[in-house]
Write a structure and sequence with these properties.
By secondary structure, the chain is α/β, with parallel strands linked by helices. The protein is built from 16 helices and 14 strands. Helix 1 crosses helix 7 and helix 1 packs across helix 16. The chain binds uridine-diphosphate-N-acetylglucosamine (UD1) and uridine-5'-diphosphate (UDP).
Amino acid sequence: MVGARPQFVKAAPVSRALRRNHEEVLVHTGQHYDDAMSASFFRELEIPEPDINLEVGSGSHAVMTGEMLRRLEPVVLEHRPDGVLLYGDTNSTMAAAIVASKACYDGGLRPWIAHVEAGLRSFNLAMPEERNRVVADHLADLLLAPTETAMRNLQREGLGDRAELVGDVMVDAFAWASERATGKLPEVAEEHPGYLLLTLHRPENVDDPGRLAAWIAVLAGDRPVIFPIHPRTRAALERNGVSLPASVIPMEPAGYLQMVALERSAALVLTDSGGVQKEAYLSGVPCVTLRTETEWVEMVEAGWNRLAPTPELVPGAIAAGLSGTPAAKPPLYGDGLAAGRIVGAMERYVERRAARGGHAMEATVR
Ligand code: UD1
Ligand code: UDP
């Protein structure tokens, strides 16, 4: 199950590994649908075309989630997968978890649920993603955690016995793309060496016009800032008449290979994205996170990432980031072999059930 941009990135290496020995039916909810937010990722990451697209599109949380539930249930009942594999923390993730957890096949069986990127927590319940993650983790049968921090979070919630540390599959995707990113740097980046790279899309940063304008205003100055704009943010800028200073150079959402090239050549990354924080680290580029907290605390602890909870704190954080990076860059997110471990964990999960005399699927909770 996939639906939004970061899930396409995570699914790419897993899908490749899974299809070596198993059958995958790839279902796209249609949460993201613009070519630049969806199809371009399938092309560039060489992900097979989705077998099914539910074409849910945009809407309020309840409308989007409700449509996903309604459209996904018949698909699950028709295809009768042994297991359902979920990624991350979007509305698509939560909807798939709910449907799979209550689907009922003949004989009272349901698919098992495996959750990639389990155990992430911001402890900020105002984030829709935090709700989605908690629901997905508690409904899933196999929790595939990217970090020790995530493992501890799962243990604290009583889910440790379902959890396995596999590393972060975004490292696999990033390594694959890095080998293919040569020549992908856009001209605008070539023309502005020493640029900062900006992404901004969290509702708490962009939906409030004053706050959005403040994040942008603080970036006016001599240093060029390249800004691939998420459609939520573009709509908010237009709706509220927020104009960009000359130093902030807008572009369409970047394709994945272009994004990896942009990250690797940036002097510093400014972002509220989870994935982009990690890719900055993998690029060896300092990062300033435009949020009060991060789920990926390891990079902050290691001195590669600084939190800037309010716009006034951004100039100081940029200056500190540009003053030099830590000498050490440990493999905080694993070795880039997470996809194989994820498939292995699912295979062992099924074997364990068989050894206990169980069916490959789970018994339905009635
Ligand atoms: C979603 C996820 C978020 C993730 C992000 C990745 C939820 C609750 N949020 O946020 O966790 O970090 O994706 O990018 O699931 N839009 C388009 N074209 C598209 C997609 C979206 O124009 O292809 C516009 C629509 O106006 C839409 C808005 O963007 O209303 C927001 O899209 P939505 O999927 O609701 O949330 P994201 O902010 O993308
Ligand atoms: N990304 C991209 N082009 C962009 C912005 C992001 O290819 O213009 C990629 C980025 O490299 C990362 C993923 O999208 O792999 C992160 O998705 P996003 O920031 O939308 O969501 P989050 O990670 O915060 O959930």
